Structure formats: structure tokens, C-alpha cells
């Protein structure tokens, strides 16, 4: 659980963060899947393959997510309009590293533990030949937390 100081909510918001296996696996391909390696199902039952590069990079995700409490940090709404993206530049492999997350107000049953739930749905480095994610406007992560908690519209700057 991380704490976000929200002026909008007039309180410190407790944010529970969890990560899906898309942060350390990639899409399954029968031809390139290593022999003897397990096939890893995701939350929808889709087949995934362990990815050592994604795994290594995923070890830094808790620190990256924690850095979002800085009021200067901006996140971008994805074109799907159901989740958010945050990107940084990394050295190995060199280039952009994108993470995608959903944020929701905690259910009534969970509110004694946390105010918001963040699910990091995926994180990967941008490979050559693939462009950046399709993004819309941006908003500060702290402001996003306050707006979700207060149930306010999620207006972003474009």
C-alpha cells in the first residue's frame, strides 16, 4: 500500500497496488516457446510465456509506481479509455519502458484497508519495429487519484 497526499480528497489516500503476470510474461507463440518451459495462463486463461527481460525489468516496478506520488509526475489516458500509461526511458534494453494500469475506488468492503486499487496490467520495453502506445491526454497521477476517489470526471489535457 502506498500513500498519496490528495488535496482534492482532503486526506492521504491509501492505494493498494498489485501486478498481473503480463509484467513478466509475453504473448504465447508455439514456435518460439522454449521446450520444457511451462505455459503461464493469464487472468483470462490466455497462454503466456515467461520473459526474462520483462521479469528483470518488473523488479523495478514497485519503485517506479512509488515515484508517481510526486505531484509533477503525469500519466496518460490510453486510447481504450479504460486504463492509463506511464513511460520512462531505460538503458537496458535501451529505449522506452511502458507500464499500463487501471485505477478504481476500493469497494466498501475494502475501504477499511485502502481507498483506491491500482492494477498494473502490463509493463514492457518498446521493441524496434513497434511504435509507442496510442495515448490521449495527460493528468498528474496525484490528481487522478483524487478524481477517482471523489468520483469526478477524468478530464485530461491534450
Topology:
Blueprint: E1 2-6, E2 11-19, E3 25-27, E4 40-41, E5 47-50, H1 52-58, H2 61-67, E6 74-78, E7 84-91, E8 94-105, E9 116-125, E10 135-140, H3 141-150
Parallel strand pairs: 2-9
Antiparallel strand pairs: 1-2, 3-5, 4-5, 6-7, 6-10, 7-8, 8-9
Structural class, by secondary structure, is alpha+beta
Whole-number average pLDDT?
A: 95
Order of helical and strand elements: EEEEEHHEEEEEH
Beginning-to-end CA distance, first to last residue: 30 Å
What is the makeup of the main sheet? 7 strands, mixed
Number of strands: 10
Radius of gyration: 17 Å
Q: From the structure provided, what is the oligomeric state, counting identical versus distinct chains?
A: single chain
Biggest sheet strand order reads 1-2-9-8-7-6-10
Number of continuous helical runs: 3
Bin the strand percentage.
Answer: 35-45%
Low-confidence stretches: none
- Helix amount: 10-25%
Number of domains: 1
- Mass-distribution shape: globular
What does this structure look like?
The model has no long low-confidence stretch (mean pLDDT 95). The chain is an alpha+beta fold and 158 residues long. The protein has helices at 52-58, 61-67, 141-150; strands at 2-6, 11-19, 25-27, 40-41, 47-50, 74-78, 84-91, 94-105, 116-125, 135-140. The strands form two sheets. It has a seven-stranded mixed beta sheet with strand order 1-2-9-8-7-6-10. The chain has a three-stranded antiparallel beta sheet with strand order 3-5-4. Strand 4 (40-41) and strand 5 (47-50) form a beta hairpin. It has one domain.
Amino acid at each position: 500500500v502506498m500513500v498519496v497526499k490528495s488535496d482534492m480528497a482532503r486526506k492521504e489516500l491509501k492505494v493498494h497496488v498489485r501486478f498481473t503476470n503480463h509484467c513478466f510474461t509475453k504473448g504465447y507463440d508455439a514456435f518460439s516457446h522454449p521446450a520444457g518451459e511451462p505455459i503461464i495462463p493469464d487472468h483470462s486463461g490466455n497462454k503466456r510465456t515467461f520473459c526474462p527481460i520483462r521479469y528483470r525489468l518488473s523488479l523495478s516496478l514497485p519503485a517506479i509506481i512509488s515515484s508517481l506520488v510526486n505531484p509533477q509526475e503525469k500519466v496518460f489516458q490510453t486510447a481504450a479509455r479504460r486504463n492509463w500509461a506511464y513511460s520512462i526511458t531505460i538503458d537496458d534494453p535501451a529505449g522506452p519502458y511502458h507500464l499500463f494500469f487501471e485505477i478504481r475506488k476500493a469497494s466498501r468492503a475494502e475501504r477499511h484497508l485502502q481507498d483506491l486499487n491500482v492494477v498494473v496490467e502490463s509493463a514492457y520495453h518498446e521493441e524496434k519495429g513497434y511504435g509507442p502506445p496510442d495515448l490521449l491526454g495527460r493528468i498528474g497521477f496525484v490528481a487522478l487519484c483524487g478524481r477517482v476517489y471523489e468520483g469526478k470526471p477524468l478530464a485530461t489535457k491534450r
